[in-house]
Write a structure and sequence with these properties.
homodimer; 112 residues; Arc Repressor Mutant, subunit A; 4 helices; 3 strands; globular; DNA-binding; Tscrpt_reg_PadR_N (chains A, B); PadR family transcriptional regulator (chains A, B); WH_DNA-bd_sf (chains A, B); Metal_resp_DNA-bind_regulator (chains A, B)
Chain lengths: 112, 112
DNA sequence: TTTACATACATAGGAAAATTATGTATGTAA
DNA sequence: TTACATACATAATTTTCCTATGTATGTAAA
């Protein structure tokens, strides 16, 4: 019963930034599990998509990292930088506009 | 004030099919103008995206075409095939699910 | 004990979709 | 005659994501 992942193209950065705006710090695997639980298993965030996206956001200065070792396993924690905190506001507004426009285009405006 | 087109990736087929489910028949340029007017100029559908998408949907048997000459210009009208009529229902449901999941992931659930 | 699965990171190769740029052609308004 | 609108189309490139693969540890089941 998974959703059509095709439609989520372009939304990954916004999803990551928003999760980090709510959670102080998160590591990659944790993000995949969070997305899975929020969508009740419908959206499976793939590692091949997540890690490159995290690296890109870090390279752009939107994310900062710290590394911890837990149970002999390395965890790389990501958190929003100052710039990241600003950008997440923009991204969320863009997402709101996008949803509104898409609902207009598809006649999906929820009944008042 | 255009929206971030990045987010619309993956939604083009659904938008086209839905417009054709509401309009009997439309030609390419008309679709670009319709999208522009519905979104009040925020989403500009590019020809380089639209025409390949139309050709693909036709190749998949979801669209049928007829050609007319108006004012010495050729117009290629597209309309939904039987399969297209079925597929638009699926695509719209997928879009609804997508929006619901995205709102969940971004905490954008409209207040009740 | 060894197999499978979960945790945790990462990257290479390829596919799909869109953008940019370009091309053809006609009609109209400045 | 220049610019813009109408109307189609495609080639080259970019972006984004998925699939597949790789490394490594811990735990539960068979």
């Amino acid at each position: 019963m998974a959703v059509n992942n095709e439609l989520f193209k372009g939304t990954l950065q916004t999803i990551i930034l928003n999760l980090l705006s709510e959670n102080e710090k998160m590591y990659g695997y944790e993000i995949t599990q969070k997305v899975k639980s929020i969508t009740q298993g419908e959206l499976m965030l793939k590692e091949g998509a997540l890690y490159p996206a995290l690296h890109k956001l870090e390279a752009e200065g939107l994310l900062e990292t710290t590394t911890e070792v837990v149970d002999n396993r390395v965890r790389k924690y990501y958190s929003l930088s100052k710039d990241g905190e600003k950008e997440v506001v923009n991204k969320l507004q863009e997402a709101k506009d996008f949803i509104a426009q898409l609902q207009l285009l598809l006649n999906l405006k929820p009944a008042i």
